[in-house]
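REVIEWER CHECKLIST
Item 1: Sequence provided? yes
Item 2: Single chain? yes
Item 3: Sequence as submitted:
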Amino acid sequence: MGFYSIWPYFIGMLAVLMLAATPLLKWADTPPTTVPVRVHTIDGLRGFLALSVVFHHAAIYHQYLLTGMWGLPPSRFYANLGGVGVSMYFMITGYLFWTQMLKAKGRPNFLRLYVGRVFRIVPLYFLLAAVVLLGVGVLTQWRLNEAPVLFAKNVGKWLAGGFLIGGPVNTYIGTGRIAAYVTWSLHYEWLFYGSLLLTSLLARTVISAALAPALGFLAAAVLLSFDQNNIPVAAIMLFCAGMGVAAAKSALASRSIPAPQWALSIGILACLALALGAIDGAYNALTIALLATAFTLILFGGTVFGLLLTRPARRLGDISYGIYLLQGPILFTLFANPSMRAFAASAAWSHWIVVLAAVLLLVLVATATHALVERPGVLAGQWVLARVASARRRPTAETPLAG
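Item 4: Structure as written out by the authors:
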């Protein structure tokens, strides 16, 4: 088995599913947010997407240990794996929030939306930022190596809740590697949420609600055909793909595609296989079109032979944010240990054993932070919204009680 064989990925996924089926992950059974109607296939999909990003970074770590260079691995499968995971995350975001815009007819409660996002994303992000900054402190021996103003600026980027992309702190160039460089995607998520202040206006009519994402998708595809892997343009195409599926489901009253479940599942797997193994680069128009097709089949009834509806898959989906966000510190810590590093570098099988241990530990950590950080954060956001609503209802001297 060569180092870049796909089997470690599938064996690792199987091991994680087996762990997720045990009582150790029972904390993950309750969703982190109160949503009237959940799309269970999306719940089941999220965990696989987050874990794909983890295995992508695990492959990167192999060549980093050997060469000291952090970059895409020479395997097309592992090189595309992370981008495919993030891409479908962006589609999910586009789908869920455009669905909200459509239900509100372009007039959503933006206060509720943004307060909800802050308290959903920021608490766990702050935990990651604290770990990263603590790591920098240890690695630089708690000595200040840059001007205080520059240090404060660099730390501030890491404390911006993901809106800004953090870089080196205290001249330590590996700061981002402690987090496996995952926080960049949050920057685009925040930009998308901000864009809803304007794009929500397009959700006020059925025609514009469907036409806007379709035109955005096509325009971005054209631009990507001239400038492949342009991340901002790719992000627009991905968000528009999700928004387009939301518009289609709304127009069709969420009806499923009239095709056998096995045919939908094969179609999903075929699109994913082509995106991962037949095309160089995850952020180009053709790959995104394949992923958009797979996403559409999932949202219109595809379950990947029932896998996305299983309890282990949905548990992993509930803790997927923690899996995605906290992978960096665990991989960094394990591979920073000299004995573990030497063992991982000695052979392909030993590297993947270390990775498997890291992934299983990561799932347990993500389960704990889901219960202890994410859920309390969501409840805190609900408390804030309730206080705001109560303050708005409270009579003032200028507004006497009726009667």
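Item 5: Key structural point noted by reviewer: Residues 399-403 have pLDDT under 50 and may be disordered.
Item 6: Recommendation: ____
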